[in-house]
Amino acid sequence: MKKALTIAGSDTCGGAGIQADLKTFSAHGVYGMSVITAVTAQNTQGVFGVLDVTVDIIEKQIDAIFDDIDVDAVKIGMVSQTDTIKTIASTLKKYSTKNIVLDPVMISKSGYDLLKPEAKEALISELIPLATIITPNAPEAEVITGIKIESIQDMEEAAKKIYDLGVENVLVKGGHLSLESKEAIDVLYNGQDFRYYKSPIIETKNTHGTGCTLSSAIASNLALGNNIERSVELAKSYITIAIENSFSIGKGVGPTHHFY
Ligand code: PLP
């Protein structure tokens, strides 16, 4: 059985964060493990509070896994603050971790800061160089690069700039852009070539946790032995079907559906 680890925040309502990641791993037939970086109180309507887990306990959680278990892929999600980021980076380096998928979580769809603004620099200098692939959406790519993203060309330019920060592959997700083609186009850059992944834009309000789900689907596929291009392709079709089957569970933005 392949084994994947998520290092991320907990989402009480189960649509994003650790809970989405573990459901995604299971749906791929991958054994899921978790290091919890923060506990959020949230539902489909918003985030009402966050408790950051201490760096000491984050380090002990990572050590507990790697001292005992072989990990085939790691997904990193909400990391919240500078000290947390530095601890995760130094601990993962100690174990020469492979297949690291970094989802640079910054702001929830409901507008809550899940990454403290001052922690952005640490994310860029400490975590990006460790990652096999980073998966920013267009607004996150704008924050990382300072490039205003309105077109595929802007996504390509941002991907190149992020690649130069030391990551092996960059997937800039275009779902937030209103392109003329009415498609969600993601751009993958590996330092040499661009690849384009297209899917129809699905009209639904229930998109809570889509970024978490896509990144943990990529991690699952890497754990299963697929290369980056194939892992992104499989993950893109997984998230598209998950959004097509998304549903309402409360008064706000509902979750996507996890199955294979
Ligand atoms: N909560 C946690 C713990 C997350 O990691 C994330 C996403 O990345 C979110 C909430 C935000 O979810 P969304 O913006 O998809 O509603």
Automatic annotation (TrEMBL):
Its EC number is 2.7.1.49, 2.7.4.7. Pathway: Cofactor biosynthesis; thiamine diphosphate biosynthesis; 4-amino-2-methyl-5-diphosphomethylpyrimidine from 5-amino-1-(5-phospho-D-ribosyl)imidazole: step 2/3; Cofactor biosynthesis; thiamine diphosphate biosynthesis; 4-amino-2-methyl-5-diphosphomethylpyrimidine from 5-amino-1-(5-phospho-D-ribosyl)imidazole: step 3/3. This is Hydroxymethylpyrimidine/phosphomethylpyrimidine kinase. GO terms for biological process: thiamine biosynthetic process. GO terms for cellular component: cytosol. Coiled coil: none annotated. InterPro entries: HMP/HMP-P_kinase_dom (IPR004399), PM/HMP-P_kinase-1 (IPR013749), Ribokinase-like (IPR029056). Keywords: ATP-binding, Kinase, Nucleotide-binding, Thiamine biosynthesis, Transferase.
